[in-house]
């Protein structure tokens, strides 16, 4: 991973002088360098780049997997990973609360979080987990189609609040989810601001020639009232097919998808209906009535009557009342809004069915992702802004509760002393809105319930009366000097994020949100099955439905309170989104706009609170892991017992004093200290990287070496196998008198034995030596590789027994083993000869034709001749590097000639084997050849004489050395000599 240099500070907590200017300066600096993410402790501040950044790919995800937030550059993936880690490691539910104004990047952030969570599963290809991941991601396309629209602030603005719970199994893999939707901006269905579009669904439906447009006579080039001046685009038709494939992926039945698009068409057509009055005052419905009833699946008569008037239950009687033109118009719009709003909620319910945790599947832990509208302050603020801003007050309250409370609890838990920080608690504003009996919602509900029709203005008067004296509420009536407030229209709430003036107009209607029963009945009578299903209350008896449903504000308050309750039980993470400009363009920074958002999101305050007590807190183990290299007492390892002790020692060594030691965490007061630690660390890192690289390269080399060794072992085993096969084929040919013997069918048995012995010897020789072509075996006088000599001998002789090497140290071979051992160690002390590798008794033949019993000792560097009884060194050791050649016989004779060109005498030795074995030659050659190779880097020369004769140099003269002919009479001495010919008698050389 390449770590890029940081720009500014990656965590606002590290700012030296905290002011709003400094805060914005750092945010801007980072934005200019495409560093759109910065932390306030664990809160992520994200600035919308309005351009595609290459920071979201799989390789970026990998950088955040399992890493602590402070270890890696700030990123929304780090938040997602932290969420998942808390869930997996502590089994705790977590949530991410994403806030910011329209276009600040909330929905994008939530999608990145979902993407990360979906990718970060423990099992990559478990079928239903893959399905869940797919469904969670696809559900976004449907929600965006039906709930998003182009506004002047955001081309793809979510016009509803969304909270999504994702369920995880015990391993931490997603197994399902649930979406809650809040307050769709349904007024958009029938009224658009200039330059804005209606919900995407309408344009998508009209963008192609499809079954629905055909069936309901819709036309992509026609102008429809509810679509405003905006036309469909090529993008819409692309998204139309995407939406349909998402429906398919979520398992929506084709009939249901038909129903959904029919309702969308029906709403477009409702927008086209017109009303006029006949001369007799009769209301006439015009426009595409037929197409409209077709799309909604209702009868024409029912539609006409529902739009033309209404039936009321009064005193047990049913009274019908005709609509005026104005009422009819209002009813049509109400019907369109209600039908679309209900459709949206119903679609969310269907999605929930598709993603619910299957029964029997444990989906015990949750991550909640809240993507909800930010604070809104417009020219004219109405009921919707009132609800949205109330929602933000609730979330701010939650933030205060969780963040500040947690902070204080942590200090208490850790035994840290601190002075509480003053902060503005917005509970008072929440209460202004929601308090029972006294709050604005209660006052509105009371007005709505009043049997006499209360106007908006009367509502305002009632509010003024009840709320006068409240610090956060005012109106022109209450502060006549404030000319900005319109008399009888405006009231102002001082929100935690600033003053907002609301116009009371429409509050009563919007809060009642009543849909006449006739319309509910109409929709329930539809033969579009899904539409019928959406309006169950339209099926109840009109006489029984006089009870008013709860008002819109009350419903909203309940859903907010349920939301907050749910969030309270979870460990929260915050993403605060900031919009850098209103033009939706990259690289543009509108200082005023940013300043405003920083203010109302309370970000600087957030940093202050975070730093009030301590700028940073870290668990001892984590702190140690990050900074242990800064002190010789802790690097590479601390010798004490606890991490806390280690951190204390480390900080004492660094003379850092502005800290407090909690039970499990270290609390650092000033940001400067963290800076200092970070800088010192950054300075040391390059040398540590070099060290790690060195170690790692060594590991790789050792691994490669092991592999090579393993390959060689396999190769040798195979070679042995082939030769065993060859020998056994020879043996079986011999016993059956075929094959080799076939060429000499009459060969006597002695010849056969000689033959097989010859083959056996050649085989032994072969094993000693590097393989040579069979046709060159008669020239068995070769240079061999030391390693292969060692290995080949070992593979043959070593298979039967272990090489003991230092035989003299073995009591069974040498009854004076202990004398030998002490002689050896004093020898080792006096003569730098190294470790004993091989020793045995030998018969030595010298230049005076004398035979002597000696002991031979081969060490890591030299060949020594020792006295046979005292094991004292007899002559100067001969360095192994001076060995010229080693000569042996291909037979079993234990005769070895070690030629030393620098001396006038070769070593002519008959080795004395232990009782239980017949050969030491192989082992001696193995040891000598191997050491020779190690010391000189070249191969030892080993000559194997195939015949019965070899040679040696004694007293500077060449002498022949032979084995006796078989018919020779046995002699008692291992060596005899006559006429410069030395004879070695193997039989007499036994121990
Ligand atoms: N991280 C990002 N990288 C690139 N572009 C982004 C990023 N975040 C947001 N955008 C761009 O900004 C646009 C608006 O973002 P988004 O829809 O997430 O805002 P929002 O805060 O959810 O707004 P609203 O409240 O209106 O729904 C996106 O369509 C996208 O083009």
TrEMBL record:
It is found in: Cell membrane. Residues 560-582 are annotated as: Actin-binding. One of its GO terms (cellular component) is plasma membrane. One of its GO terms (biological process) is actin filament organization. Belongs to the TRAFAC class myosin-kinesin ATPase superfamily. Myosin family. This is Myosin motor domain-containing protein. GO terms for molecular function: actin filament binding; ATP binding; microfilament motor activity; phosphatidylinositol-4,5-bisphosphate binding. Keywords: Actin-binding, ATP-binding, Lipid-binding, Motor protein, Myosin, Nucleotide-binding. The lineage of its organism: Eukaryota, Metazoa, Ecdysozoa, Arthropoda, Hexapoda. ATP binds at residues 100-107. It comes from Pieris brassicae. Residues 791-987 form the TH1 domain. Residues 7-682 form the Myosin motor domain. It is a peripheral membrane protein.
């Amino acid at each position: 991973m390449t770590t890029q240099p940081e720009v500014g500070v990656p965590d606002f907590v590290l700012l030296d002088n905290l002011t709003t200017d400094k805060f914005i300066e750092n945010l801007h600096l980072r934005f200019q360098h495409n560093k759109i993410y910065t932390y306030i402790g664990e809160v992520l501040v994200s600035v919308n780049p309005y351009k595609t950044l290459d920071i979201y790919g799989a390789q970026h995800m990998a950088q955040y997997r399992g890493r602590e937030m402070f270890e890696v550059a700030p990123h929304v993936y780090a938040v997602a990973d932290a969420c998942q880690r808390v869930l997996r490691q502590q089994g705790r539910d977590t949530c991410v609360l994403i806030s910011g104004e329209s276009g600040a990047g909330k929905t994008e952030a939530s999608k990145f979080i979902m993407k990360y969570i979906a990718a970060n599963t423990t099992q990559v290809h478990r079928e239903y987990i893959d399905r869940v991941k797919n469904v969670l991601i696809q559900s976004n396309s449907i929600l965006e189609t039906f709930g998003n629209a182009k506004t002047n602030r955001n081309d793809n603005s979510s016009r509803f609040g969304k909270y999504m719970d994702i369920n995880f199994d015990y391993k931490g893999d997603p197994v399902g989810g649930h979406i809650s939707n809040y307050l769709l901006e349904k007024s958009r269905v029938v009224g658009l601001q200039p330059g804005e579009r209606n919900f995407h669904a309408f344009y998508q439906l009209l963008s192609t020639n499809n079954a629905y447009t055909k069936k309901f006579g819709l036309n992509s080039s026609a102008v429809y009232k509810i679509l405003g001046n905006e036309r469909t685009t090529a993008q819409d038709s692309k998204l139309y097919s995407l939406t349909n494939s998402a429906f398919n992926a979520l398992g929506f039945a084709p009939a249901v998808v038909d129903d959904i698009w029919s309702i969308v068409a029906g709403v477009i057509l409702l927008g086209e209906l017109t009303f006029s009055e006949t001369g007799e005052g009769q209301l006439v419905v015009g426009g595409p009535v037929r197409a409209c009833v077709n799309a909604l699946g209702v009868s024409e008569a029912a539609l006409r009557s529902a739009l033309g008037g209404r039936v009321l239950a009064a005193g047990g009687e049913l009274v019908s009342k005709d609509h005026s033109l104005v009422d009819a118009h209002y009813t049509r719009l109400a019907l369109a809004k209600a039908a679309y709003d209900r459709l949206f909620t119903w679609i969310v319910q269907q999605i929930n069915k598709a993603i619910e945790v299957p029964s029997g599947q444990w989906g015990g832990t949750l991550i909640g992702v809240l993507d909800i509208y930010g604070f809104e302050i417009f020219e004219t603020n109405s009921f919707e802004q009132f609800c949205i801003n109330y929602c933000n007050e609730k979330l701010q309250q939650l933030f205060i509760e969780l963040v500040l409370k947690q902070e204080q609890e942590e200090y208490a838990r850790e035994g840290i002393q601190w002075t509480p920080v003053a902060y503005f608690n917005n509970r008072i504003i929440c209460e202004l809105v929601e308090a029972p009996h006294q709050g604005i919602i209660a006052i509105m509900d009371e007005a709505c319930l009043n049997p006499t029709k209360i106007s908006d203005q009367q509502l305002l008067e009632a509010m003024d009366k009840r709320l006068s004296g409240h610090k956060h509420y005012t109106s022109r009536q209450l502060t006549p000097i404030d000319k900005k407030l319109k008399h009888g229209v405006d009231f102002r709430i001082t929100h935690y994020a600033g003053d907002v003036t609301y116009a009371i107009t429409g509050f009563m209607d919007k809060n009642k949100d009543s849909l006449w029963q006739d319309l509910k009945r109409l929709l329930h009578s539809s033969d579009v099955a899904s539409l019928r299903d959406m309006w169950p209350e339209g099926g109840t008896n009109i006489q029984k439905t006089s009870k008013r449903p709860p008002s819109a504000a009350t419903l909203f308050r309940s859903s907010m309170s349920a939301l907050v309750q749910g969030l309270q039980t979870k460990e929260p993470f915050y993403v605060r989104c900031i919009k850098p400009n209103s033009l939706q363009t990259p690289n543009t920074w509108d200082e005023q706009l940013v300043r405003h958002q920083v203010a109302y999101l309370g970000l600087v305050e957030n940093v202050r609170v975070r730093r009030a007590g301590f700028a940073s807190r870290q668990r001892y183990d984590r702190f140690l892991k990050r900074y242990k290299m800064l002190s010789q007492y802790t690097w590479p390892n601390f010798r004490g017992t606890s991490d806390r002790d280690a951190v204390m020692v480390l900080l004492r060594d660094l003379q850092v004093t502005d800290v407090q030691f909690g039970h499990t965490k270290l609390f650092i007061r000033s940001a400067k200290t963290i800076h200092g630690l970070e800088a010192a660390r950054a300075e040391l890192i390059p040398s540590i990287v070099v060290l790690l690289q060195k170690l790692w390269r060594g590991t790789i080399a050792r691994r490669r070496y092991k592999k090579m060794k393993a390959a060689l072992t396999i190769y040798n085993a195979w070679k042995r196998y082939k030769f065993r096969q060859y020998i056994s084929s020879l043996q079986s040919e011999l016993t059956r008198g075929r094959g080799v013997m076939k060429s000499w069918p009459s060969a006597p048995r002695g010849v056969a034995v000689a033959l097989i012995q010859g083959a056996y010897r050649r085989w032994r020789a072969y094993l000693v030596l590097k393989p040579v072509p069979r046709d060159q075996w008669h020239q068995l006088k070769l240079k061999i590789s030391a390693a292969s000599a060692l290995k080949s001998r070992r593979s043959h002789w070593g298979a039967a027994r272990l090489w003991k090497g230092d035989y003299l140290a073995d009591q069974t071979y040498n009854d004076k083993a202990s004398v030998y051992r002490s002689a050896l160690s004093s020898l080792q002390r006096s003569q730098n000869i190294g470790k004993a590798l091989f020793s045995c008794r030998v018969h030595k033949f010298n230049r005076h034709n004398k035979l002597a019993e000696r002991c031979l000792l081969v060490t890591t560097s030299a060949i020594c001749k020792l006295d046979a009884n005292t094991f004292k060194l007899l002559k100067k050791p001969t360095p192994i590097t001076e060995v010229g050649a080693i000569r042996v016989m291909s037979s079993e004779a234990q005769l070895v000639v070690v030629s030393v060109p620098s001396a006038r005498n070769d070593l002519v030795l008959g080795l004395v084997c232990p009782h239980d074995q017949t050969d030491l030659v192989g082992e001696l050659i193995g040891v000598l050849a191997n050491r020779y190779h190690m010391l000189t880097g070249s191969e030892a020369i080993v000559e194997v004489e195939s015949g019965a004769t070899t040679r040696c140099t004694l007293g500077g003269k060449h002498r022949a050395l032979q084995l006796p002919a078989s018919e020779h009479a046995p002699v008692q001495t291992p060596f005899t000599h006559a006429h410069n010919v030395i004879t070695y008698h193997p039989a007499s050389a036994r121990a």
